[in-house]
């Protein structure tokens, strides 16, 4: 990691720094990158009161909340064992938390956003879109989700690749994931294993009844692609792991069986029926796995985000919030 690459850690509106800050400090010390601590605050009552008490008074109330949290965040940052790491503190008024994080990441050109994972029930995930899920889909840079109960040190890592998605020599998403995983393994001085899952899903198995020949053909294609990838990238024999089954479950079981502290994989946004039918390996994993997870996006992620969310308008909305806070402070 270039020392100029920024690390952005997202903190809740209150409370002491947790596992995400500890992990971010480890990474910042090893890489020499600056660490940005950003807390998100929001009180809907303040925005609702604007119609009654006026925009100016509401802006002052909002600014009082921001200043109080910033004071507390700076106190917490000063108490950290920074070890020479440059730390910047910021607090954002975040009616839309995902938008605030994305805007901050783009503003500082963050290479990695680090956040403690927030666990949700399957039923709630079906009805709502928690912040972790939104960042997983939309954030254009790397996202490191830290398990609150994760180990203090990263000793063993795994990188999960879809070897059928592209040719082994292509400079595509697989190469980006592998480079990111190798970089972190070097910083953490961790062992890194390569994993690929042949997705023998229940829906496929029902469809393939009486078609064992086709299944064997697909299995052989995956095995050939996996071996070619390992050979081209010189993966040692004892660090190659080819699995079969439901990808999220197979990876979770592998991580538990081998004591994996951090799993790196790709995250490609799917929408509408495609996401409903195919599901999301990354989303399922971050809710269930005990290890930290590093989600890596394809090179075209920023362009896709701009088409979906209109980044110019997003930046303008966030800039207005900053200007309102500065005006209320005068």
Descriptive report:
The chain has 330 residues and is α/β, with parallel strands linked by helices. The chain folds into two domains: 1-116 and 300-330, Rossmann fold, CATH 3.40.50; 154-291, Rossmann fold (3-Layer(aba) Sandwich), CATH 3.40.50. 52% of the residues lie in helices and 18% in strands. It is built from 14 helices and ten strands. The chain has helices at 19-31, 44-53, 55-79, 97-108, 122-127, 131-138, 173-188, 202-207, 212-232, 247-258, 272-278, 281-288, 301-309, 311-329; strands at residues 6-11, 35-41, 87-93, 110-116, 142-146, 156-160, 191-198, 240-244, 262-266, 292-296. Strands 3-2-1-4-5-10-9-6-7-8 form a ten-stranded mixed sheet, sandwiched between helices. Strand 1 (6-11), helix 1 (19-31) and strand 2 (35-41) form a beta-alpha-beta unit. It is elongated and about 70 Å long. The two termini are 39 Å apart. The relative contact order is 0.13. The model is unreliable at 272-279 (pLDDT under 50).
Quick summary:
With 330 residues, the chain is an alpha/beta fold. The protein has 14 helices and ten strands.
List keywords for this structure.
2 domains; alpha/beta; 18% strand; Rossmann fold; 14 helices; elongated; 330 residues; 10-stranded mixed beta sheet
List strands and helices in order, with pairings:
Elements lengths: L5 E6 L7 H13 L3 E7 L2 H10 L1 H25 L7 E7 L3 H12 L1 E7 L5 H6 L3 H8 L3 E5 L9 E5 L12 H16 L2 E8 L3 H6 L4 H21 L7 E5 L2 H12 L3 E5 L5 H7 L2 H8 L3 E5 L4 H9 L1 H19 L1
Parallel strand pairs: 1-2, 1-4, 2-3, 4-5, 6-7, 6-9, 7-8, 9-10
Antiparallel strand pairs: 5-10
